[in-house]
Design a protein that fits this description.
Shape: elongated
Radius of gyration: 23 Å
Strand content: under 5%
Helix content: 55-70%
Number of helices: 14
């Protein structure tokens, strides 16, 4: 008898995972299909347990660095963690953990059930892999996550403060506004503001330079960064 008569590849299996494309904020069925295809081994169980434990308010150990060779399943593991931390529908995954509990004896089943029963959903922020600037990637990911979770909130950042400053000049200090408008290179002030809204670093750097030229002082950068929101 041929092997393909005895062994069938799961429809939910995946050769490669891209978290940005494979995680859905609004469609639980998409997430459930991906979760079905994951087979946790000892290493992934250890990582999952460690991260779930760090969600407790009783610990300050919130940051984890997951490293491994290319193709070893890091992205797939992070996709599973995204679903667990957001308290998505993961019954099939819980069953897999229970099924191997007697073999691994790592207590993950109890830990996982406790998390799903007692923890509030966390906001999942996924940065763009290929972004040239990690801070920009975090801010864009945060904005996207807030929007897709229907959370009406704009993070207080240096970019937002720069926009507020420009709008304030437009209303209260037309001389300053005109100076900025006249010295912006290769763009209109409307496009300049739109680029700040997308957290474009080069636009922000130019704003700081123009601000110092106009005001005579350095623009304050004491506003909240993405890292304080994420971590």
């Amino acid at each position: 008898m041929k092997l393909n008569k005895l062994i069938k590849l799961s429809d939910s299996s995946s050769k490669a995972v891209n978290i940005l494309n494979d995680y859905s904020y609004q469609d639980p069925q998409i997430n459930e299909e991906k979760v079905k295809g994951y087979l946790p081994n000892k290493s992934s169980r250890d990582i999952i347990k460690s991260i779930l434990l760090s969600c407790s308010e009783n610990t300050d150990e919130k940051l984890h660095l997951v490293t491994a060779s290319y193709g070893t399943g890091k992205s797939y593991l992070l996709l599973i963690l995204a679903n667990l931390l957001a308290n998505k529908k993961v019954e099939s995954f819980v069953d897999k953990i229970k099924d191997k509990e007697n073999y691994y004896k790592d207590g993950l089943t109890k830990n996982l059930q406790n998390h799903l029963n007692n923890s509030s959903p966390l906001l999942i922020v996924i940065p763009e892999y290929g972004d040239y600037d990690f801070d920009h990637a975090l801010l864009e990911g945060l904005k996207f996550a807030l929007k897709n979770n229907d959370i009406d909130y704009i993070p207080k950042t240096n970019y937002e403060e720069a926009i507020k400053t420009i709008n304030h000049w437009n209303e209260k200090s037309p001389h300053n506004y005109k100076q900025l408008k006249d010295c912006i290179t290769g763009s209109t002030i409307e496009k300049f503001i739109e680029q700040l809204k997308t957290y474009d670093q080069s636009t922000y750097i130019e704003f700081k330079k123009r601000y110092k030229d106009i005001i005579g002082n350095t623009f304050s950068e004491s506003h909240t960064s993405a890292y304080l929101y994420i971590f």
